[in-house]
Input
Amino acid sequence: MAHGRDILLNARLNKGTAFTEHEREALGLMGLLPDGVSTPADQLLRVKRQMQQCTTDLDKYVYLSELADHNERLFFTMLRSDPAGLMPLVYTPTVGEACQKFGHIMRRPRGLYVGLNRKGRIRQVLENWPEDDVRFIVVTDGERILGLGDQGVCGMGIPIGKLALYSAFGGVPPEAALPVTLDVGTNNEAFLEDPLYPGLRQRRITGPEYDAFVEEFVMAVQQVFPRCCIQFEDFTNKTAIPLLQRYRDRVCCFNDDIQGTAAVAVAGMLGACRIRGDRLRDHRIVFYGAGSAAIGIADLCCLQMTREGLSMAEARARCFLMNSKGLVTADSPGLSEHQQPYAHANPPMRDLLEVVKAIKPSAIVGVSTVAGAFTPAVIQEMARLNERPVIFPYSNPTSKSECTAKEAIEHSAGRAIFASGSPFPPLHHAGKLFVPGQGNNVYIYPAVGLAVYVTQASRVTDDMFLRAAESLAEQVTDEDLRVGLIYPPVAEIHETLVKEAIDVATMIFDKGLARVPRPTDIAAFVRAQVYDPTYPA
Output
């Protein structure tokens, strides 16, 4: 059992100045702390004031990381106390800058690094992790971090940030979570020349060698952590969909960039439908971007449309993709298998405004990472075509957003139904308050994660993500919709996610995918396992 200074150096056990006098006596802490005993509220006030002294968002990110390294429960209590204010610091948009500077700001190493030099010994690497019952791994190879491209092992900021939100807002216990980066090299020239880059200094491997390395990792996880769910994160388009297809029916896994993004987008569309008074089956949607995120959203939209009575062919005919070469059509060369269902018999068009005029969409969804792609002219044309145009610039970070909330509202004369990937502040237009919605995946994946955790689900399915989307949309109130908010307020995200998790867990039991007995009261069963960051008595 840990004793004395060892307790203070263990982030999971440390309570700092909140240790009671009795605990200090029993645990050998007398004299190792100031004699004043702080309440948790005192501690929270202290760390908030300390963080306020940080001058930049990156400094605040570093401060929060160090807090997590020395007092885990206080860190999660702080996050849960102010989701709207702190989520942008722990994850998007600040995590993007943190990844770019990861080698320069890193303090205590966190997570597990699985490098090519460990090929053939990955199981041994996993066995070095101190927890025996890991239930969630978020893993990246760092090749496509947000909209920033190849960040190599510096992409570790993404798994760390994702899992922080799993615990803070979704309620998955932090000891069950493991961030992993696969170090398969980097093609980032700046990193290869940077003496502070902490990864392997070699070019990325590809092809069969890459596939074999990932296979060894996935199979090692099954051996070392048999109840673990793997979340693939920020893999490039050319590998994300093939990886999901390869493993989704073999192991418990999902890809948040594909399925989580899709679910939050469908939830946003369902909210937009409430404002417009229509159904998803009535929409025509142009996706600006034709990679894995766009295809994932289109696929889930089509699944929902079929539930509303359309055939799959009819549903796909209402979805259109654009890539860097323009509108994806039946004559476009080099289409992937996953793009082909959305390659319709249209004439070639390169310009988004031209596409909007020809297709006459009700919604445009940006997943391109092309900043400013939704120009004033595009927004104005959407407003001309629709009384309430749906404009979703989902690209992250903020610097990659296809338009701002201000641009969408002003150029649509206040009629746009808006949601973005990164946060934008509330604004007034023509005397009316608008609260921009943030279509962040954090509204989805922690809920699915909690449901998988409590049920020990054997697989993760698209139906689970669609159920999460429906549950999220159902929690939006009429008052939210009146100010243009199509997602529940971020301040209430913990309870929102727990309710989603209850709905998804119910589906898991209904589908026979759970590996634990069905409880009499599923809601109580889920809530009993939600992580509580307050100090144990």
